[in-house]
Design brief:
The chain is 40% helix and 15% strand. It is an alpha/beta fold. It folds into 2 domains: 148 residues, Glucose-6-phosphate isomerase like protein, domain 1 (Rossmann fold, 3-Layer(aba) Sandwich), CATH 3.40.50.10490; 112 residues, 3-Layer(aba) Sandwich (Rossmann fold). It has a 5-stranded parallel sheet, sandwiched between helices. A 4-stranded parallel sheet has the order 7-6-8-9, with helices on both faces.
Length: 292
């Protein structure tokens, strides 16, 4: 079995474990009312974006998300949450070193003995969600499960939807499509981007992601019968109707957005294998980006 296949399958059980440990680390993460930022690169940035949107829209405090290399020097926060699976990502490490002594920082990582963990003021360790595959799946969703639990979300339904996403057939046969579009609203914009990234990384697919209401402002012009449009979480029905009018195939499953992401991960593996690619070792990618 490929590493990514077993890692995808392990996710609901790890979400349950993350929810269980959330109360034990609650003092490390931003409390209610504190301004905060969440940073990361690639997948970790998209998880940071989902978390930041959830936290702010829940009325728990002003929360920004930033790509680690683009952290603004003109903003101040009560705390910065840095997400890095490997704990070695250069841009995250540089941001933490730049913030040292000015803003409290906490690293969410799978690697205790890592530069990022050492550079942060405190560490939330998710070593049980570490991965062998280059393509991130379970670490990212487990980190989000932990952050959602910290925000007060009950995850029983999420976990049940995740189990169902592992058991049921894929909603479409991916090999028949040329273009894959993922749409989100609110906190699921980050997950729509993450869904697109999985297909791009694992299967070298033409993928795009948009806030749902933006899709009609130009991007819909290239949709057609070989386009798949997938809603990650609730999406305005009018947007999906307009996409369907182009001849595109619509997927609107209605399960928890993290469970929808599990289905997308499975589809990415299936498409990669149909194209003769190894989803554990995508071309041009390494497990962590470490710059000179």
């Amino acid at each position: 079995m490929r590493a990514i296949t077993s890692e995808i399958a392990s996710q609901p059980a790890l979400w349950r474990k993350a929810a269980a440990i959330a109360p034990t680390i609650s003092g490390l993460l931003p409390p209610r009312g504190e301004s905060a930022a969440a940073i990361g690169c690639g997948t970790s940035y998209y998880i940071a974006l989902a978390y930041a949107t959830l936290r702010e829209t829940s009325g728990l405090g002003t929360t920004d998300a930033a790509i680690a290399s683009e952290v603004s020097p003109h903003r101040s926060y009560g705390r910065v949450v840095a997400i890095s699976r490997s704990g070695t990502t250069t841009e995250v490490l540089r941001a933490l070193e730049w913030l040292r002594g000015t803003i409290p920082t906490v690293a969410v990582t799978a690697a205790a003995d890592s530069p990022v963990a050492s550079a942060a003021d405190s560490t939330v360790l998710l070593d049980f969600a570490n991965e062998r595959s280059v393509v991130q799946t379970r670490f990212a969703t487990t980190a989000l499960a932990l952050l959602r639990a910290h925000l007060g979300h009950r995850l029983e339904a999420t976990i049940a939807d995740g189990d169902a996403a592992l058991a049921k057939p894929l909603p479409v046969e991916p090999a028949g499509f040329k273009q894959f579009v993922f749409l989100g609203q609110g906190w699921t914009v980050g997950l729509a981007n993450e869904a697109a990234l999985k297909l791009r990384e694992a299967a070298s697919a033409w993928t795009e992601a948009y806030p749902a209401m933006e899709y009609r402002h130009g991007p819909i012009s290239v949709a057609g019968p070989r386009t798949l449009v997938w809603a990650i979480g609730p999406v305005d029905p009018g947007v999906l109707a307009d996409a369907a009018d182009t001849g595109a195939t619509i997927v609107d499953g209605g399960s928890d957005p993290m469970a929808e992401l599990v289905l997308v991960q499975r589809m990415a593996v299936e498409l990669a294998e149909a194209r003769g690619l190894d989803p554990d070792r995508p071309k041009h990618l390494t497990r962590s980006v470490v710059l000179p």
